[in-house]
Amino acid sequence: IKKIGVLTSGGDAPGMNAAIRGVVRAGLAEGLELFGIYDGYLGLYEDRMLSLDRYSVSDVINRGGTFLGSARFPEFKEESVRQIAIENMRKRGLDALVVIGGDGSYMGAKRLTEMGFPCIGLPGTIDNDVAGTDYTIGYQTALETVVEAIDRLRDTSSSHQRISIVEVMGRHCGDLTLSAAIAGGCEYVVLPEIPYTREELVAEIRAGLKKGKKHAIVAITELLCDCAELAKYIEKETGRETRATVLGHIQRGGAPCAFDRILASRMGAYAVDLLLQGFGGRCVGVQNDRMVHHDIIDAIENMRRPFRGDLMATAKRLY
Ligand code: ADP
Q1: Which amino acids are annotated catalytic?
Q2: How large is the ipTM?
Q3: How far apart are CA 27 and CA 275, in angstroms?
Q4: Nearest CA to ligand 1 atom 20
Q5: Binding positions for Mg(2+) (predicted)?
Q6: If I label 214, which of 135, 225, 271, 282 is the partner at 20 to 30 A Cα–Cα?
Q7: Which of 8, 68, 107, 172 to mutate to test the pocket of ligand 1 (most atoms within 8 A of CB)?
Q8: Which residue of 37, 42, 105, 127 sits with most ligand 1 atoms within 8 Å of its CB, as the best mutation to test the pocket?
Q9: Residues 6+ apart with CB under 8 A from 283
Q10: Is residue 37 within 8 Å of residue 48, measured between CB atoms?
């Protein structure tokens, strides 16, 4: 292995820059050449790459987003498109590619590996929905952002004896919602992993009001319902003013917290170690604070994230 490419793909996440920096600095220290690819698989297909030196990643460890840019590029599912991407990498003499992204991006990395081009995947997403790792890069930063937003909602909900619904990102994974609910002291939490009905939710809220609760904060994962419509329903059923707040892309921005910077730096350097040891088709994770790697195909097809039922139980006990 002499030349490595690195790209960021899918939804961006705070700490992606720190991961790129980790790959670049660790690679250069081992005498490798590094190439950055713009805008994920789109830039790979369009042959938009630049050589990276150690100063290319100066002053990025503290910056949110990704300086290489990211993109959704559904055409990458076509083999002919991936073939052109591989030709572009071969033309420049690249031997391997590090892909920083979520499980969609892992699919692309898996396909490239199957076509004979070794890839290493690093989990970069705020959703924490990637198998084979306790935490993804960006998750802890997003968690801090969500908790800060919930704290602010609590102040005003409490003053006005209002019910607040806060919609949190995570797609089909409730980790961000659940952890934010515990840290933010939310009264109710609705997650994709646990079926709920709005009738049950209203019954719980009513029981809380009966106990004398002045306000209620409901944390709910995105994609489960229309929160504005849910707010109207709850207001009608309880007679209490109810407002929905969709946090949206605010959750994806901001400077990465120290945890994410450290995780990203470790993972970036570890990806280089794996490539030097001759590994390809692996994805990097952190489990029990140790760097681990799994087969990328196995991670996508067979491994499942365990649901944190223990955290759910804690949240429920502290309602
Ligand atoms: P994330 O990586 O955050 O989960 P996406 O699911 O949008 O984000 O995936 C990012 C990109 O990965 C897609 O736009 C596409 O270019 C590529 N990708 C996703 N699924 C596949 C697939 N089955 N085969 C090849 N490439 C894929």
Answers
A1: 127
A2: 0.95
A3: 10
A4: 104
A5: 103
A6: 225
A7: 107
A8: 105
A9: 106, 109, 120, 121, 122, 123, 130, 132, 133, 293, 294, 295, 296, 299
A10: yes
